């Protein structure tokens, strides 16, 4: 009898030990950083396997690289547990990586039209992910946003359009375009809204522009991750982090500005004059100056104003806010149809748009001082105007909490980063003129009552 009980006890202990081992296996998942189409790179309960599915029509694709632009873990070991609601969730992680490579076992590449599955850890990819596609010795980068990988599920890059992929040599700088080309989906929604301007079509277009904006942010984040790995000095990383933070913080405002500019139906009444349509502005029929006010233009208002010979087309500087407003009032009195004034910060940004990364401009001491307003006329703002960035700062009517006036666009002696359109922390005292601050003008339609006063 004792022998029987002893045998049963041993069996129970053994079964418990085996069960515990099985439980340990089932309560863990392991995802490899290097995967192929022959090995799924996954260990654990198959029902928990998750990741990204892709299916290319392109031939010659030999490798895909996946990265979370927010630096979240995609590969490594993780425990599976139950949350307070009894739902399956991810617990502790170890040996994690934010990058996964997935290679074709055949030299000719992945089979076109076939589904392939990259295993990942569960991950919130709402902020974005990079999918780099290697083909014929070149690489193209796709950025996805607003998606989440959950246990047991695979997501797909549903808005990836293979014909819109731009392939370049591996190692080539990943340049963030200042004004990305309009993709086919956005174009179709834009055309639909123009033809049928309903609220539903307007919202669909706005939603798509949010996606476009977040994809640009994802590219910036990816550049930040790259710099964190490769930059030799922290100041470079800090610089890019500041750009990303600003884009995230001001997301809604910037999207709204872009959207209003995008749907503004106005056309330039006279493309050859000095006034550009200020798309998205709330003021009636607003236009903005093609360039900052020049010495010659200001001297026509103030004959006592003197400047160096040969600098007629240089931006007028050393002008106070009151003097700039007096010039605007002078223009208004000569034109009964329009009102001339300084732009607000928002109007200035609408005119300039986002500053392209590699824009040519007079900044960072590339010149020894001011230049003519058309010296870098190949660089145009969103409205088509010139000299928005560098050369001289420009007054706006917007002020900070202390009543200081916000200036925009940077100057010849500014760092390139300080010239960015969205930078809003440079201010000056309006009662003083500065050797590197000029101004640009906005023109709006005069109301009937204003016309009578004029």
UniProtKB/TrEMBL annotation:
**InterPro entries registered for this protein in UniProt:** CTDL_fold, Sulfatase_Mod_Factor_Kinase, SUMF_dom, SUMF_sf
Q: Which Gene3D superfamilies match?
A: paralog of FGE (formylglycine-generating enzyme)
UniProt KW keywords: Coiled coil, Signal
Taking the record's annotation, the residue ranges forming a coiled coil are: 210-237
Residue intervals of the Sulfatase-modifying factor enzyme-like domain: 257-443
Citing just one GO molecular function, the answer is: formylglycine-generating oxidase activity
Q: Which residues form the signal peptide?
A: 1-20
The superkingdom listed in its UniProt entry is: Bacteria
Protein name per its UniProtKB record: Sulfatase-modifying factor enzyme-like domain-containing protein
The organism of origin for this protein: Coprobacter secundus subsp. similis
The organism's taxonomic lineage, starting at the top: Bacteria, Pseudomonadati, Bacteroidota, Bacteroidia, Bacteroidales
